[in-house]
Design goal:
307 residues; alpha/beta; 21% strand; binds manganese (II) ion
């Protein structure tokens, strides 16, 4: 009997989690005609993702806030701190991800595909190519955009040869120049004018749990520090309000400069762990981290070493 399976990324959806969900739902429909696969998002999409979906004239997936009673494929995450509410009463079908193996458990055996590469969208594009499923131009386009977004136009430490190779293939299909298109994508994200402090923080915020400690790491990427730096007081205050309301021990905001390739790490709550993790003094809520751009490869592992 046909059933609806939702394909969904993490809370506070970023471009990779939205585009991988749309493309993977399309892929699954092609290889499994019996079931209906629907992309979904856990909340509103960010300005970068909106730019990309508009660019390729694609619809925003429906918002799903409670997974109870539903069949779900998770993309781009596998941690309880980031997953849609109600997951304990849902049926997880598959997980497709490029993060560390987290703490999600399933009752039944599932397909779990994880690769240590730059984006989930690289994995999904690879599935299309491997199974020789025809990729519509707009699907190739959103996958390319997501790879460029997650790898910071191939500059992130998380980027691999496979990401580059697949991105080049998607660039060929779409006729886009990855570097030029990547800058357009990043500019859509770094436009902070008219956004509230809460929007800026929550548009890319991930929660982590280790032993008794719960913490959050947000990231704002831009082409300089000035614009975000000018709003530091307001952002620090809001970050602390978010930390408080979510009951986190501490919260970090990575203000990342993608041109200079470095991060100012802002810290609220128990700041000792962050200072210890990077062996630096926290001054005015801030640690300067030259060369650091990746939350999952350069920040979270360092933090977890000292928790
Ligand atoms: Mn991702």
């Amino acid at each position: 009997m046909a059933q609806t399976v939702y394909v969904i990324g993490h809370k506070n959806p970023d471009t990779d989690s939205v585009c991988a969900a749309i493309a993977y739902a399309h892929f699954k429909k092609k290889i499994d005609c019996d079931d209906d696969y629907k992309p979904a998002v856990t909340g509103p999409i960010n300005s970068e993702t909106k730019f990309i979906l508009d660019y390729f004239k694609m619809e925003t997936p429906e918002i799903l806030t409670d997974a109870s009673g539903k069949k779900i494929i998770l993309v781009d995450h596998n941690e309880m701190g980031q997953v849609i509410d109600g997951i304990e009463n849902a049926e997880i079908f598959e997980i497709i991800d490029h993060h560390r193996i987290g703490d999600i458990q399933t009752g039944a055996p599932i397909l779990f595909h994880a690769e240590p590469i730059g984006s989930t969208s690289t994995i999904v594009a690879d599935f299309f190519l491997y199974h020789k499923i025809e990729m519509p131009k707009e699907i190739a386009g959103i996958l390319l955009a997501a790879i460029l977004s997650d790898t910071v136009i191939f500059k992130s430490q998380t980027c691999t040869e496979k990401d580059k190779r697949i991105a080049m293939e998607l660039a060929r299909i779409t006729g886009l120049n990855p570097e030029e298109f990547g800058l357009q994508v990043k500019k859509a994200k770094s436009d902070i004018k008219g956004k509230s402090a809460n929007e800026l923080i929550m548009s890319d915020f991930k929660e982590y749990r280790k032993e008794g400690t719960r913490y959050g790491v947000a990231q704002i990427e831009g082409v300089d520090y000035e614009e975000v730096g000018a709003r530091k007081g307001e952002l620090i205050k809001e970050l602390d309000a978010v930390r408080e309301s979510q009951g986190l021990n501490f919260a970090l905001l990575m203000v990342t400069n993608i041109i200079e390739e470095g991060t100012r790490l802002w810290v609220v709550g128990d700041g000792e762990i962050a200072g210890k993790a990077f062996g630096k003094e926290v001054t005015d809520h801030e640690i300067h981290l030259p060369g650091v751009m990746s939350r999952k490869k350069q920040v979270v592992p360092e933090i977890e070493k000292v928790i």
